Amino acid sequence: MEEMKRPVVIGVTGGSGSGKTTVSNEIFERLAGESMVMLPQDAYYNDQTDMPMDERKQVNYDHPDAFDTDLLVEQLKQLIDGHAIEQPTYNYADYNRAPETVTIEPANVIIVEGVLLFVEEALRDLLDIKIYVDTDDDIRFIRRMQRDVEERGRTIDSVVNQYMETVKPMYHQFIEPTKRYADIILPEGGQNEVGINMIEAQLRVILDAEKKNKL
């Protein structure tokens, strides 16, 4: 496949448990055959190696300051410019960045997924298409509890406490207000077949136009 002049960068955001990862994966699968990569914002939590475990557990991971946004912006720019990156990885059990990295090659479509994508202007400006997944609070909470207990080894009490103390207030303070930056607001996440069909159709129009206009 011939390379396009510039990759199409798609940002998918929404509250924790909204279904943004499901939507991102659905887009990825529907555009199978295209040159595509996905960057999860969760991989860019700050390196906390110098912090004791007790302090790591007290960090507000739903606040923009918990992320190394500068690194995400830098690496996204590198991908846009056609350079491979070494994406960091995160170990939830250690509350810290893992030593391993993942090599991500440049591609024609880049999907960036995360809860706080639209907060920082420098990151927002790199996104060609901004999708906000809008899901009811109760559903998001249930999904988050199931995920954290089953996949991340958290207790029910710890999930509830974290949700009440940081997740819910941070959502209303930082995430929900960024809905105004969205090009597309997708209710019900991955359950919204009509909405995802429309997103797929629009992306195919953009990709086809880019291919026709390539040098």
UniProtKB/TrEMBL annotation:
Keyword Transferase among UniProt keywords: yes
* Residue stretches making up the Phosphoribulokinase/uridine kinase domain: 9-194
Q: Spell out the InterPro entries in the cross-references.
A: P-loop_NTPase, PRK/URK, Uridine_kinase, Uridine_kinase-like
GO BP terms, alphabetized: CTP salvage; UMP salvage
Q: Which UniProt keywords apply?
A: ATP-binding, Cytoplasm, Kinase, Nucleotide-binding, Transferase
Locations listed in the record = Cytoplasm
- The source's domain of life comes to Bacteria
Q: Which GO terms describe its cellular component?
A: cytoplasm
Residues given in the record as ATP binding sites: G14, G15, S16, G17, S18, G19, K20, T21
Per its record, the protein catalyses: cytidine + ATP = CMP + ADP + H(+); uridine + ATP = UMP + ADP + H(+)
Which pathway is recorded for this entry? Pyrimidine metabolism; CTP biosynthesis via salvage pathway; CTP from cytidine: step 1/3; Pyrimidine metabolism; UMP biosynthesis via salvage pathway; UMP from uridine: step 1/1
Q: Name one GO molecular function term.
A: uridine kinase activity
Q: What EC number(s) does this enzyme carry?
A: 2.7.1.48
Keyword presence, Plastid = no
Q: What class of enzyme is it?
A: transferase
Family as reported in the entry's similarity comment? Belongs to the uridine kinase family.
What is the protein name stated in its UniProt record? Answer: Uridine kinase
Q: Which organism is it from?
A: Weissella minor
